[in-house]
Amino acid sequence: MIKDLEFATPESQGIRSEDILEFINRLAYRKMNLHSFLMARNGKIIAEGYVKPFHKDFEHRLYSASKTFVAMAVGLMVTEGKVKVTDKIADYLQNYIDNPLDRWTQDMTIEDCMMMSAPMFPDRDNPAKDPNLRCYNLLNHTKGVYPGGTLFCYNKAPDLVCAAIKNITGKEFIDYLRPVFDAIGISKDIWCVKTKEDYCWGGSGIVCTLRDYAKMGEFVLNLGCVNGKQLIDRDYMEKATTTRICTLNSNFYDPLSNCGYGYYTWITPDAFAFRGMGTQQCFGFRDKDFLFVCQADTQTTSDNTSAWVYDCVKHLVYDRIGRKKKEGKAYLQLQEALQNLQPPMYGRPHAAYEQEINGKTYMVKPGNPMGWKNFRFDFDPNGSEGTLTYENSRGIKKISFGIGRLKQGKFPETHYYDKQLTIPGNREQDCTAVCEWVEDQKLLLRVYVIDHSMGNLFATFSFVGNEVGLSFRKTAEYFMDDYQGDTSGYLAQE
């Protein structure tokens, strides 16, 4: 089992090394910002790889893939007779309710919430109230607009379930699952970001290693059975991983998001899937006992990367299971590739114009969205790294970057949340950064926050004469908002 970290060659499990190599090459061709991935068959790990600086002990945010862990906690409560999925969830949340509930909200069940068919659409937080009181606002300032269980709507209902689990068991859902975690070998270091209301944010907040993620995937793949012992009711597990509600609602179709939803689990024609923002994926193909998990930061304003990764896994590996070939050159090439996974690069490491801007200060147009006053690039003589120094409303900041490679460092802001939503972490967060010339006089700075939260910044500096255009695009949830916008600047007089 994955719990015991059993490794095997792909060929011994009916999978060709060539097919996994092709998968890796497709990722590189698409410049996929994957951080790590693992493939397993019959409980044995056949491929595991990490892009530096990531490694087997790195704790990575799962975002919405956290929801499936919440479904497992509900399954454990069902197994222990603490609840039924048909129970009205409001009955367990009286401490959050100030006003009489409308009929559909009052009748909403635990199952409605886990099927993402809670009747509260759209989320209409009362602007007079604190929008960070997620559970309170859902119950007091959102009206049901259809009967629960009838329509799929991806909303904040997991907050209700997490709060209810804490009320019912006296424990956070992640602590309540500890006996299951121990049985499948999940580290005691797994944890979860909390909400302002002080319950674990199971909708988005779990932080764990890739292997811990894979162990939960195998547990679900085996329908809650570990070494012959059924830890969570099998009937519940079957319902959780089969279609409970239709998710097709537009002319856009992909097999990962439009083929149904179970209990906080996506259903495809061939597999179940945990899915988190930025491609935190787990695919379980039960008919062939095949598991794929990955962690990444592919966040964009229009992200269809998750569906693309699923297609690659299915067509390049899953569909080819059973094609026989002996271990040989391809297996050795695969091992080398797994040890040398590279992050995507977009431009040239150097350009002649580098010396034109090196060490020179540029003033930034006042009133710009980022609050910048000035900036300067300094490139080291060895040509392998450099520093961006800039001044914003919070003072002088520095970002160290690699040239032609990602360099690990710190993102120079301390006011972003850390272990609890809305609460400043008062520390700089880990990041990687790289500078590349994408045109002769256009410099792209990419910064990736790789901490308890994941986020990325693409900052473009386009130089012409003594002027410069700046374009900042960030993709991060609830932080880095002050690194977004467009403006201009000019070379300061020396």
Strand content: 25-35%
Uncertain regions spanning at least 5 consecutive residues: none
Sheet with most strands: 9 strands, mixed, barrel
Fraction of residues in helix: 10-25%
- For the record, give the distance between the C-alpha atoms at the N and C termini, rounded to a whole number: 66 Å
CATH class of the largest domain: Alpha Beta
Number of domains: 2
Instruction: Let me know the CATH homologous superfamily of the largest domain.
Output: DD-peptidase/beta-lactamase superfamily
CATH topology name of the largest domain, in short, is Beta-lactamase
Total strand count, please? Answer: 21
**DSSP summary: helix tally:** 13
Structural class: alpha+beta
Rounded average pLDDT: 95
CATH architectural category of the largest domain: 3-Layer(aba) Sandwich
Gyration radius from CA atoms, angstroms: 24 Å
Q: Identify the overall geometry.
A: globular
As laid out across the biggest beta sheet, the strand order is: 12-13-14-15-17-18-19-20-21
